[in-house]
Design brief:
It is built from 21 helices and 5 strands. By secondary structure, it is an all-alpha fold. The termini are far apart. The strands form 2 sheets. It has a 3-stranded antiparallel sheet, with no helix packed on it. 57% of the residues lie in helices and 3% in strands.
Length: 440
Amino acid sequence: MAVAAPSEAVGGSLVHSHGCSKQSSSPRTPKPSFQVSLPLRSPNKSLTVLKRDKLSSIPQPTKLKSSCSSQISKKNNKKKSVPVTSPGCTTSDVLHLMDALCLPVPPDMYTSFISECTSTVHSHGADDLHAHITRSGLQQPPLSLLNRLLLMHVSCGRLELARHLFGGMPSKDLKSWATMIVAYLNSGDYQEAMDLFLKMLHRISMLEFPAWIMVCLLKLCVCTANMDLGRQVHGCSLKLGHANNLSLASCLINFYGKFRSLESANTVFDQLTHHNSLTWMARLINNSREELFFQVFKDFTEIGKSGIKTNSLMFSCVLKACARMHDHGRCGRQVHANAIKLGLDTDAYVRCGLVDMYGKSGLLRDAKRVFEMSSDRRNNASWNAMLGGYIRNELYLEAIKFLYEMKAAGLQLQQSLLDELRIACGSSTRSLGELYAAKV
């Protein structure tokens, strides 16, 4: 609804709202000043009608556009939501204005508002919006609208409101159940999520589940230590033809690895027709957990040969394995050279892993060189890794000096390393300060 601005006399011409001008023969008269009051958020405030030359600074209203945001899983190709309100104008402002103008809010506009509150995680706006929908007396809201409301409350962290809404829904579909299950899973209420999942199985067959829901269920099975149910999910995924779904396969490999069933995990890995960084990372973690350190290094070498792009997490994992090989850093040096070639040696995780690997391999000079090349001097992990290298190589005086450097830098010391240093120095009756003062 547009408010037409009155015509003005400018420079002897009569300027009309449609942009045309006409010469006026009458003498110029003073323009009357008046105000129009609109009952917005503050009824006592008034809105002054601006001149045409100032209207350009007012932000134009954004065209309403309905968008769908019913997916629960986080995907890399998320579509950017179109804001339905201009900057500085909230959903509550628009609803107040439409109430003042006695205009009903159509369901598609409610959908747009819900999508915006969900994407911006605006909890107060979500509460106002839900209350407005309730007051509007919308007869039999469609299930899609209720699912969006459910997702909105979950995204805003209002789990109690979501639970109340879910309990009062006359009908529920797979999205409704999945939203609440994932909400309980993310909040750490694993048993509640499992109970809700078992209730869902009485209404919806597992054969109707998409792959992303099975991923969530496998994570839930790990959290609740329910291996039998996880095996059922695996069997169902095979029936549905998800055998080569890499996201689901990586979760299955991780699932079996958490239950120390390395043979089943390797079977899932070997049956894949192709691999990506997710499946390889899950395999590296499993072998490292089982202390198969040379196998971790072998797999890392195979990743490079297969052409799959390695990342900092892979380097961090294989460096932890190299640190425990007791090969005087031979494999670790190869990994370091590979990181330099790929430009990942400056990554904080990789650099910390290098310091730890060289320190545990007895190569303190290399560890010190990597540590001093770090641009991030506030990284607690790197400092503690360097301190651990001094302690393991029995360089206690250097370790004590390094303690004072850490204190001067305002860094937090790992308590286990401090206890280890005290025991090694025999300082049960003497403070580290006294020990340091006596040796320097």
